[in-house]
Specification:
It contains 10 helices and 2 strands; from the N terminus they run H-H-H-H-H-H-E-H-H-H-H-E. It has 337 residues and is an all-alpha fold. Helix 9 packs antiparallel against helix 10. The relative contact order is 0.13.
């Protein structure tokens, strides 16, 4: 067995001053390790959306009636609060698991050799989105589940999923300039698909905000909109996304596009069909909680695949090594990275 290296006082000072640089100077992860770390952060970003939906659908949104503590006198739930307290506090605890996953992704990206500044920044972007969403989640509780803040909370979670998806993709690519695999007209069609998908998700939060699942058993105000009308608008947007996806698949076949974009577009089409089926079933069965939760999971998966289709339209090979590529072992990273 190798001996444990002596840690000098200078090493300890360097670790305190910049722990990421200290770790990076002494550890080089395998590329697969970095990929798995980024994937773990992405999976946890989806899990937190699903568990947040469970909090809402079980009426546990105010299971912990205040924030950042669970009650005025306790940081955690108490037995008197019942199952709603356990559900809400459990979801808060999962935020720490998400932070750990994102932190692991940051450490792995920062320690990779050669140093990849863009990849590390994507990890830090996730961290700041998580912190912002945690504060917003506290505001949601403090304002009594105001539907507009709840909608913003979900949209920020979707932004987190987007950043995590991009980072996961970038771990499997190089840092050379992207090379398009399809023509400009195809890329424009995909950007339209992305834009309509964003609008679909946004309108979906309005459907939830105007619908019957307020997130708590007490009287919670809803968005003053006709739920039936907003739901029909949501369905129309969903059909537009399905149509755009089918048209994209047809165009990719016509131009003999690579297998990557074709396969991801096909998968997206199947995901959309499954998501649409769940949506119509829940609509005609008076919104059973289990189907609403499944629809939320489907929304996150759909959004990931829309982004994967977009990212599949180009390739980024490994850049030629340069003297500036690795970061010096003792370099201090800015606090915002």
């Amino acid at each position: 067995m190798d001996g444990v290296p002596n840690v000098t006082r200078a090493d300890a000072a360097a670790a305190v001053r910049n722990p990421l640089a200290f770790i990076a100077a002494r550890w080089t992860p395998e590329p697969r390790t970095v990929q798995r770390a980024a994937l773990a952060a992405l999976v946890m970003s989806v899990v937190i959306v699903v568990t947040g939906g469970a909090v809402r659908l079980t009426g546990s949104g105010l299971g912990c009636p205040t924030w950042p503590k669970c009650t005025e006198d306790s940081i955690h739930n108490t037995a008197e609060m019942g199952v709603h307290g356990y559900i809400e506090f459990g979801n808060r605890l999962l935020t720490y698991v998400l932070c750990a996953a994102v932190g692991w992704a940051i450490i792995a990206a920062r320690s990779q050799k050669p140093y990849r500044r863009g990849l590390t920044r994507l990890g830090w972007a996730q961290f700041w989105v998580v912190m912002g969403n945690a504060v917003l989640g506290g505001i949601v509780v403090l304002v009594g589940l105001n539907p507009y803040t709840v909608a913003a909370h979900f949209l920020l979670s979707s932004a987190l999923i987007a950043v995590a998806t991009v980072m996961w993709q970038r771990t499997r690519e190089g840092d050379a300039a992207p090379r398009p695999l399809v023509g400009a007209s195809v890329r424009q069609l995909v950007w339209v698909l992305v834009a309509v998908s964003v609008l679909l998700i946004a309108v979906g939060t309005v459907v939830t905000g105007a619908g019957p699942h307020a997130g708590d058993s007490s009287e919670v105000p809803r968005m003053p909109l006709d739920w039936e009308t907003v739901t029909k608008l949501h369905a129309v947007l969903a059909w537009i996304v399905v149509t755009l996806t089918f048209a994209l698949w047809f165009v990719l076949k016509a131009v003999d596009a690579p297998r990557g974009p074709l396969g991801r577009t096909r998968d997206l089409f199947l995901i959309l069909l499954a998501q649409g089926t769940v949506g119509y079933v829940q609509y005609f069965t008076d919104l059973p909680e289990i189907l609403v939760g499944l629809h939320m999971l489907g929304s996150a998966v759909m959004w990931i695949w829309v982004l994967r289709v977009l990212l599949s339209l180009r390739e980024r090979p490994v850049a030629e090594p340069s003297p500036q590529a690795p970061a010096p072992a003792g370099r201090l990273e800015p606090a915002a990275r």
